[in-house]
Amino acid sequence: MSSDIRIAPVESARDLRRFIALPHRIYAQDKFWVPPLDSEVRKLLSPKKNTFFENGEAAYWLALRDGEPVGRISAQINRRHLALYDDATGNFGFLEAIDDQEVFDALFATAETWLRARAMRRAIGPYSLTINDDIGVLVSGFDSAPMALMGHSPRYYQPRLEQAGYTKAKDIFSFRLGREELSPYSVERMTRIRERFAANEHIALRFIDMKRFEEEMHLILDLYNDAWRDNWGFLPVTANEARNLVASIRPIVRPDQVILASVGGTTIGFIAAIPDINEFLVDLKGKLLPFGWAKMLWRLKFATPRGVRVILAGVKSDYRNSALSGAVMSSMLGMLVENLVRSRHQVCEISWILEDNQASIRVTRLFAKLAKTHRIFGKELSAS
Questions:
Q1: In the chain, which end has fewer C-beta atoms inside a 10 angstrom radius, N or C?
Q2: 3-state secondary structure 111-146
Q3: What is the pLDDT of residue 152?
Q4: Pairing between strand 122-125 and 89-97?
């Protein structure tokens, strides 16, 4: 470790401000990076405001050179994960650094030492802070901006992690439909597919009822917990997490972008999309004050972003790998795309999908093309 690099724990309000501000330096020349709202990052990091800390603990560090931040990292353990998987695995996250291997090595050495001290035998990440948050390092698809709630990273992150001893744990895919796929011709084809599936399997589709928004969202999250329960690394959404999620997304949900499917009167599937609010954030530079809040409120109410992102989708586990499951998912996705064509949206992203979720990938490839790949990295931690 170079003597001119010092790793300092984030302990003061000034440290926290520098930790949050560092990405603005890392991405200063990257036209595709979208600055997250500083206030939202602060909530994620706060033990008082983030429900992660009900069952987890975390520490944050800055890498300093000549007193200036050149990197940052978190290390965390999630007791819910440990109770479910019993695998002695901790996580790192909030990873940002200049293109310097010594900085990466110093950050990882510190995070790994913290994890070993808590009896962790493996590190997985980046998770900021959980698998349900911003995850992975971008390894392909650098030629476009990330959509809402998705991460972005420089090309050099992958080789820097690999040189630090980290290897691929899992890839997650983002698929996109552009104007070619959203053309009237394509929609006519999708409509035929959807109607054939719906007729053969007696599938009924409906939009979310905004008058019963909380009830509907809890139904969706219950379906999500069931549909995703056997996926790699999955952690069910808790009641507190559900309450916070429902409150946070209500202002951006559009009723014709959340679809539920039922068979025989029982709801068994859902697909939920949100407008790409990243387009509303680009010029705010992470700040809502003094005037950013007014711009954001106006845009949420009146503006139509180019993009829409599918953030959640699933079919009850009872139907996994069945013809009915594929029919339900194809029907919901087809109906969503039909609605997008009638709107002013230009692109739809479906993300993220685990690389080993072949059933979802097969359905998605009927409509969309692979656009981005994020990689989750892992490393076995020695006992030293």
A1: C
A2: HHHHHHCCCCCEEEECEECCCCCEECEEEECCCCCC
A3: 97
A4: parallel
* Structure token digits, residue 311: 């953030």
Do both 55 and 150 map to the same domain? yes
Question: What per-residue confidence (pLDDT) applies to 161?
Answer: 98
In what helix (H) or strand (E) does residue 236 lie, and over which residues does it extend?
none
CB of 273 closer than 8 Å to CB of 335: no
For the chain, what is the domain count?
2
Looking at residue 173, what is its pLDDT?
A: 98
Judge whether 139 and 84 are in contact, CB under 8 Å. no
Residue 295, pLDDT score: 75
The reported pLDDT for the residue numbered 187 is 61
Expressed as residue numbers, the domain containing 253 is 182-367
Rounded distance between C-alpha atoms, residue 375 and residue 192, angstroms = 36
Q: At residue 252, what are phi and psi to the nearest 5 degrees?
A: -110, -5
HEC readout, 33-87? CCCCCHHHHHHHHCCCCCHHHHCEEEEEEEEEECCEEEEEEEEEEEHHHHHHHCC
Predicted pLDDT at 1: 45
Identify residue 57 by its one-letter amino acid code. E
Identify whether residues 51 and 188 lie together within a single domain: no
* Regions of the chain where pLDDT drops below 50: 1-2
pTM: 0.92
Answer yes or no: do 113 and 224 share one domain: no
The tokens for 66 are 């000549």
Domain match, 90 and 198 both: no
Q: 20 phi and psi, to 5 degrees? A: -70, -35
The Cα 73–Cα 9 span in angstroms is 10
Amino acid at the residue 172:
I
Q: Identify whether the C-beta of residue 350 lies closer than 8 Å to the C-beta of residue 357.
A: no
> Are 193 and 338 within one domain?
yes
Contact assessment for residue 260 and residue 269, using Cβ atoms and an 8 Å cutoff:
yes
Please list, in sequence order, all residues whose beta carbon lies within 8 angstroms of the beta carbon of residue 351, skipping any fewer than 6 positions away. 147, 150, 172, 173, 174, 175, 309, 310, 311, 372
**Terminal CA-CA length for the chain:** 17
